[in-house]
Design goal:
It is elongated, with a radius of gyration of 22 Å. It is mostly helical. The N and C termini lie far apart (about 75 Å).
Length: about 150
């Protein structure tokens, strides 16, 4: 076997070792922390429900934007997502809240989310574009299915 082939096999073995090691470390990390993450998520949803009981749906969005701007980031958006879900569940429906949400229209929903992010001065923020307004879409879809959209 030529020397370059032995070198290539050696490099591939080292890369495979590091990939497998990273996977094992990741799996162990998730296994050790998943209960704490679930508890924190339940706490954030409960906080959202508590806040929502004293406001309307637009108030939930306004509060979530304030919270997100204090501590922005892709992973923080998931926590805010949980807060908004809980808040929307317990808040009063703002008249016309879901009117402009193009539920069930994929491309239009993507543009709507981007427009919402621009509206709140979060233009190209990844957390905003991918996560922040997802609970609104789900909420408005549910309202549309219930037939209680105003």
């Amino acid at each position: 076997m030529p020397g370059w082939a032995k070198t290539l096999i050696g490099i591939l073995c080292v890369v495979a070792f590091f990939v497998i090691s990273a996977l094992v470390v990741g799996i162990v990390y998730v296994a050790r922390n998943k209960d704490a993450w679930r508890a924190k998520n339940r706490e954030v949803v409960a906080e959202g429900r508590n806040f929502g009981s004293g406001t309307d749906t637009q108030g939930c969005i306004d509060e979530s934007i304030v919270r997100y701007k204090k501590e922005p980031g892709y992973f923080k958006a998931f926590s805010i997502n949980s807060f908004v879900r809980g808040c929307l569940e317990s808040s009063r429906l703002t008249p016309g809240f879901c009117d402009n949400v193009p539920v069930g229209k994929g491309m239009e929903l993507m543009e709507w989310r981007k427009e919402q992010c621009r509206h709140y001065d979060l233009g190209n923020d990844l957390g905003c574009n991918y996560s922040l307004f997802f609970p609104v879409i789900m909420f408005c879809g549910e309202q549309k299915r219930k037939g209680s959209q105003q």
